[in-house]
Amino acid sequence: MTAPLTPPPPPHDQSSHQARQAPPPAGEAAGQYGEYGQYGHHGEYGQDGPGMKTELREAAVIAVAVAVSGVLLGLLWLWLAPHVPLVGDRSDSSWAVYLKDSEGEQAAGVDGTFTLLALAFGAVSAVVVFLWRRRGGVPLVVALGVGGLLASFLAWRLGVWLGPEQDVIAHAKAVGKGVTFSAPLKLGAKGALLAWSLGALVVHLGLTALFGPRDPEPPYEDGPYAAPPA
After folding, report:
1. pLDDT (tens digit, 9 = 90+) per residue, 138-169?
2. Are residues 213 and 42 in contact, defined by beta-carbon separation less than 8 angstroms?
3. HEC states along the chain?
4. Please, are residues 187 and 144 in contact by the beta-carbon 8 Å criterion?
5. Which of these, 195, 20, 157, 1, lies nearest to 75 by C-alpha position?
6. pTM, entire model
7. CB-neighbour burial class of residue 130 (10 A; exposed 0-12, middle 13-18, buried 19+)
């Protein structure tokens, strides 16, 4: 009488084991981990911008263009600013110059005209720069600020240079005693030189916050790293 034979063990399913151990194909791995593969050392989703050298070149162009446009601001200021009337008086051989209207507000109007025009130019320059380069960047913002300051300074000096004569005594002698003439164009509130830069920065910041490009969010897919269901 022989003992019953022990049944052989069931065949091991090598195919399932190999399927678990084999790495996924390259295309499948890219599909599963695409949200991680899209990140690079240059920034999120590979969107690293045009490069620092390109941004610096663009910033230099913007700064020069904005500064040169200060010529138009100076001409408009000279044209639109109110005139401060003066009158000369002669006593013996000496001359004195007085304000014809001592209670007039023309001098304040000169500063106000410059400030309002500079704010308008700053807003327009910010809109143009944003439409040209929506991505923005620190170099472009710095270029707007520096260019606006240079443009304001250029407009101020140009308006003074093209305006009425600076030597009021010589002007009074030229026109004669008791004849009204315009005072030299001058900017009493030097803080108005910052109006262009401030207006440009505020408008550009607002446009970037409202209409600037947004970084895409990584897609959420079920996978080996997905959160377990609650």
Report:
1. 888 999 999 999 999 999 999 999 999 888 88
2. no
3. CCCCCCCCCCCCCHHHHHHHHCCCCHHHHHHHCHHHHCCECCEHHHCCCCCHHHHHHHHHHHHHHHHHCHHHHHHHHHHHCCCCEEEEEEECCEEEEEECCCCCCHHHHHHHHHHHHHHHHHHHHHHHHHHHCCCCCHHHHHHHHHHHHHHHHHHHHHHHHHCCCCCHHHHHHHHCCCCEEECCCCCCCHHHHHHHHHHHHHHHHHHHHHHCCCCCCCCCCCCCCCCCCC
4. no
5. 157
6. 0.70
7. buried
> pLDDT, tens digit, for every residue of 62-89?
999 999 999 999 999 999 999 998 888 8
Residue type, 64: V
The answer to whether 140 and 62 have CB atoms below 8 angstroms apart is yes
**d(C-alpha 160, C-alpha 164), whole Å:** 8
β-strands 180-182, 85-91: how paired?
antiparallel
Kindly report the length of the chain.
Answer: 230
Taking the CB of residue 219, how many other CB atoms lie within 10 A of it?
8
β-partners of residue 181 are 86
Structure tokens at 125: 């320059």
